[in-house]
User: Fold these one by one.
Assistant:
Number 1:
Amino acid sequence: MRAVLLLLLAWVAMSAPTPASAQRFNGNYPVCLQTWEWGGGTYISCQYSSWEQCKAAASGLSAMCLTNPYVQERAPEPVRLPRPR
């Protein structure tokens, strides 16, 4: 009886609905679009180089624009001093 109860409990725990979060982070673009899908899931796509691009893509959707948390900022260019002659 305990084995059946444990098996049933394990099956219920594994089949419980959990919101899936499909995310595509790209370190090259500074702005992400987060959209909410039917059923409670979210989708994050980081493929926008400006806030205006993201706002245009979010227009009419249940979405918002975010700063990419994984953006890889470029290192500053080293200062080159003139060589003495």
Number 2:
Amino acid sequence: MIFSTYTFIFVFLPVTLLGYRILGSLGWKNAAKLWLVLASIAFYAKGSGTFVFLFIVDILLNFAIGNLIAKADKAGAIWRKRLLLTIGIALNIGFLGYYKYANFAIENLNLLSGGAFPLLEIALPLGISFYTFQLIAFLVDCYRGRTKETPIIDFLTFITFFPQLIVGPIVHHEDMIPQYRERNFLRFNGTNMMLGIFLFSMGCAKKIMLADPLTGYAASFYANVGAGDTFTSWVASLGYSISYYFDLSGYADMALGLALMFNIRLPHNFNSPYKARNFREYWQRWHMTLSKFLSDYVFRSFYRKGSGSFNFYFSVMMTFFVSGFWHGAGWQFIIWGLINGVFVCMSHMMYRNKWQLPFALAWTLTFAGVVGTRILFVSDDMPEAWAVFRKMFSLQDFAGMGFGGFLEQATIYAANHAYIVALLLIGMAISFFAPNSSQLTNDFQPRIRHAVAAAFMLGISLAQMTSVSNFLYFQF
């Protein structure tokens, strides 16, 4: 089920919220949580079909293993704790590996051996990349003693909570469980509700008014790169960079807003990443909960403080290798991750040596790197990515016309594609100069202007909500 659909907004959300509020008003705390769990499982089942049974088995297995690890930690049984953690991580990686990487492994085995092993008919379960990371984090936190034995209803509420289930943000057990135990958890909170509606409306507008049309235009070019011209290749590549930001940050805003309607606070996931002056800063601003997970559970598994620069840079590269491979089963994703790792290492090297470029130059180089790596990310394979780069920097379309002829062709292109060019410019202006959702909602107090803005954004979005468009990260 997609947030930006009539079914979700007019059926699923009001029914779920009403049932939750009624049970909460009666003081039936566990019943309200159970209602939320059942609604979240129904939400997942609507989009994943029979995979919902795999999802249920997966989370129950992890709950059992996590509690056994917590008991072993309490008893000081170190080897039992390590064995349980190994089993738990192996199960999670095994599930993820089979569904996401089995065919990638077969393709490369065929390539290396010259064999012809048939590919498997495997569909990717919805959200498996995201909820698997949360389950692994839960097990590791149990191992580290940061998480104690947890009542199953709280664990299920934490893992299945529908706003963050499919595309994040990736949340930690220790951030969520205490909220379910707060005294005012089930009481109606007008400020939370108004802020929730405002964030949800803003997320809808980002998704429907900006991300979807830019994605559609870019996807049509990437589906047939050879047929496009140089102008189209630039607009499509810039469009994909902007649309990915608004698509994923729009989902994050909707998730935060929905959670607040249930008095649950999720972390902000984006902090104006396209304002970053280097890749070190960019990855501190982009998909922040994923970056935090990778830092806590991958980088710190390799890095040893005081072990020298080589270990630090090696740990960064391994972290981005994992990030690339997590994003997709293809060499272009691995190369995308490694190139980002190289850029981050370069940024750290400059930071450590106190080298600093002028802001305008640093920002330009960073954004150019973001667009370039996004081309790798959205291409089906490396040959397609290379074809896009060639098309972008081809001079054949402008041979012999001079600067005046180039401007004339650019003006004609802009006039013929006015809607997309206007959306791209608006999206870039918002990304580069406007405050982000966290800044807009900092110290939020409900005002008439918030209600008017929310009504306008949601109204425009509803008017354009004639077809269902998946979020781009659903495929990951």
Number 3:
Amino acid sequence: MSNKIIPYGRQNITQEDINVVIAALESDYLTQGPKILEFEREFAKYVGSVYAVAVSNGTAALHLCALALDVKEGDKVITTPITFAASANCVKYCGGEIVFSDIDSETYLLDIEKVRELLESSPKGTYKGIIPVDFAGRAVDLEAYRKLANEYDLWIIEDACHAPGGFFNDIKGDRQNCGNSNFADLAIFSFHPVKHIACGEGGMITTNDEIFYKKLLALRTHGITKNELEYQNSVSFANGTDNDIINTYPGWYMEMQALGFNYRLTDFQAALGTSQLKRAEEGLVKRRGIATLYNEAFKTKSFVKGQSGVVEGHAYHLYVIEVEDRLGLYNYLRENKIFAQIHYIPCHLMPYYKQFGWKEKDMPNAEEYYKNCISLPMYPTLTNDEQKFVIEKIISYYS
């Protein structure tokens, strides 16, 4: 192991992945072709949603969701401070206001009771929506959030970037997949290289609402539609055929009906994503196996806290532990070419958000978590020998 770098996460590209990308590059379409729709349909089937919209990255997915929900200046939206900044930034892109609420110290997820307290402390209508995050791959109980959101007339965007294949069991005991949109209005995923499904860059939005679906399709392509049934200008304005027998717009015609963006995914990225999706369940099995080995190694170690066995439905994008002397361990692991990572610096303490009045001690659970958290190597191609090496180095550091 002395010469090999072990990262916290990495992509797994097979020869089949390479072959499908080459085939897409040799086809007639590099973008806006048939591979996009194929990927969308297969992904929707995988998570159990009605619709899926492929976009350029997870941040674009969040931004489009906020646009589709008509987030505007002054709208207040609740999210967790323990997430990648994009979960909060998407609201700011639209002029809205982010209100952070603390995490549960055991699950690291947005604490629903603290969200309830926040809602109860303000008049109804103060808040517009909630963005819960399936942090590290652990599924949020969205059934409970839906019930709370309905009490206060709030929408929900599920940030499921860490959790394709993750799930929770609802009150009836039925499995609810992350991103199936049975309880959230919209859900989003990322296809960054360290995620379960890698496209280089890329994202997906899932929903069961046809109105949102149509809005998203237009917003990802400059707000332009080519659907004749949606046109607002007349056939004569478009220089089409307009008489008693036929009323037809010309083939070149299109309309920009909203201010959208170029957030499209390419066909060769979609081809890679579809190929990766075929191995998604295999990857989950391996991730959960890795989590099991870590749990067994650390369950009796006094220097590790925060582990309570493999969690059902956890997708294990990350394997996070809390430790004493986190900085010392981080540096020691890097000296041994183990590139652990920290997820995340609390968003409310980023300088950008501090300008809005957020300060230390506002989110005590999130801040305490940040002092001790470290993400260990977790990816399907991590070998047993590599994982044992990681475990041995952590134990030797504290010995």
